[in-house]
C-alpha cells in the first residue's frame, strides 16, 4: 500500500476513506448479492474534482425532501459537489460482450444529500454530460461535445509531468473547462463496493464493485498542496449558480485506472 493511502489512514477512518476515494460512488447500504443482476462493466481513466459551492446552488439538483451536505472528512473534506471527468476505454454488457462506441467521455456531477437534513447520506448523480447519452441510466444524461488533451513526459523511474485539458460543451450551450497540471507520484490501490442514486428517481440506484489506482493530487483537508496548477471555469447555464465566483476547489484525485462491475438490485 502506498505512502499516500497510509497517510490517509492516519487521518481518516477506513469508512470515510472509502467514501472519499470512490470515483463517483458512495458505500452506504450494501444489497444482498442474491438479489442482484449484473448489467455491465467498464474500464476508465478518471480525474475527480471536489468543490465547495453554495448549498443553495445545489438544492435544485436534489430530489424533493433532500438537502445537500459536505463530505465530512478525507481528501474531499468540505466539498459538497464532485465533478468526475471520465474517459471510458472499455464498456461491456452484463454478459461481458463489448457494446456501444469504442470510446466515450463523460462528466458526472454528483453530491451527498440527506433526507430532511438528517439520517444516512446518499450520493446522488445530479447530471451526466456525455459524448454518448443514450444509455442514460440515471435519467439525467445530456449530450455534450467532450474533448480531452492528455500529455505526460519525464523519466522512467521518477515522477512525471502530466497535464489534462478537458472541454465540455453540452447541448443548450456554454463550456466547462478544466486545465490541470501536476507531477505524478506514489499511487495507492483500493477496492470497494458502493451505491449511487438517481436524482430524477430517488428509488433507483446502481451497485458498483470496483478496483482503482489513485493519487491524491490536492486536499485542503489533509494539507496536501497541488504540485502544479488548476483552472476550472464554466459558463454552462445550469451550472451558473455553482460557478458564481464563490466556489473553491478543495480536493483533486487522479484515477489512472478504474475497473468496475455494475449491478442492479
What is this structure, in a nutshell?
This protein is mainly β.
Describe, in plain words, how this protein is organized in 3D.
The chain has 265 residues and is mainly beta. It has a single domain, classed as Acetoacetate decarboxylase-like. The protein is 8% helix and 51% strand. The protein contains 3 helices and 12 strands, in the order ααβαβββββββββββ. Strand 9 and strand 10 form a beta hairpin. It is globular and about 50 Å long. Residues 1-32 have low confidence and may be disordered.
Secondary-structure topology with pairs:
Blueprint: H1 3-11, H2 14-21, E1 37-52, H3 55-58, E2 66-69, E3 81-93, E4 104-115, E5 122-130, E6 141-153, E7 161-170, E8 176-183, E9 188-198, E10 205-219, E11 229-234, E12 248-264
Parallel strand pairs: 5-6, 5-9
Antiparallel strand pairs: 1-3, 1-12, 2-4, 3-4, 4-5, 6-7, 7-8, 8-11, 9-10, 10-12
CATH class: Mainly Beta
Strand line-up in the sheet with most strands:
1-3-4-5-9-10-12
Order of helices and strands: HHEHEEEEEEEEEEE
Count of spatially separate domains: 1
Strand content: over 45%
User: How many strand units?
Assistant: 12
Throw out a few tags for this protein.
8% helix, 12 strands, 7-stranded mixed beta barrel, Acetoacetate decarboxylase-like, mainly beta, 3 helices, 265 residues
Amino acid at each position: 500500500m502506498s505512502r499516500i493511502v497510509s497517510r490517509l489512514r492516519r487521518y481518516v477512518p477506513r469508512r470515510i476513506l472509502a467514501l472519499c476515494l470512490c470515483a463517483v460512488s458512495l458505500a452506504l447500504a450494501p444489497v444482498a448479492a442474491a438479489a442482484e443482476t449484473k448489467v455491465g462493466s467498464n474500464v476508465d481513466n478518471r480525474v475527480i474534482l471536489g468543490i465547495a459551492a453554495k448549498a443553495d446552488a445545489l438544492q435544485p439538483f436534489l430530489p424533493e425532501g433532500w438537502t445537500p451536505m459536505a463530505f465530512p472528512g478525507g481528501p474531499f473534506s468540505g466539498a459538497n459537489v464532485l465533478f468526475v471527468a471520465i474517459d471510458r476505454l472499455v464498456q461491456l454488457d452484463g454478459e461481458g460482450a463489448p457494446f456501444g462506441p469504442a470510446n466515450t467521455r463523460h462528466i458526472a456531477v454528483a453530491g451527498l444529500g440527506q433526507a430532511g437534513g438528517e439520517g444516512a447520506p446518499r450520493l446522488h448523480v445530479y447530471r451526466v454530460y456525455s459524448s454518448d447519452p443514450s444509455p442514460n441510466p440515471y435519467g439525467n444524461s445530456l449530450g455534450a461535445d467532450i474533448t480531452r488533451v492528455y500529455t505526460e513526459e519525464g523519466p522512467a523511474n521518477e515522477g512525471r509531468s502530466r497535464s489534462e485539458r478537458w472541454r465540455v460543451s453540452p447541448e443548450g450551450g456554454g463550456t466547462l473547462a478544466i486545465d490541470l497540471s501536476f507531477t505524478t507520484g506514489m499511487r495507492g490501490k483500493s477496492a470497494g463496493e458502493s451505491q449511487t442514486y438517481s436524482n430524477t428517481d430517488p428509488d433507483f440506484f446502481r451497485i458498483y464493485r470496483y478496483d482503482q489506482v489513485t493519487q491524491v493530487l490536492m486536499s485542503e483537508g489533509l494539507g496536501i498542496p497541488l504540485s502544479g496548477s488548476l483552472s476550472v471555469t464554466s459558463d454552462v447555464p445550469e451550472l451558473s449558480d455553482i460557478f458564481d465566483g464563490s466556489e473553491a476547489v478543495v480536493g483533486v484525485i487522479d484515477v489512472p485506472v478504474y475497473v468496475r462491475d455494475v449491478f442492479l438490485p
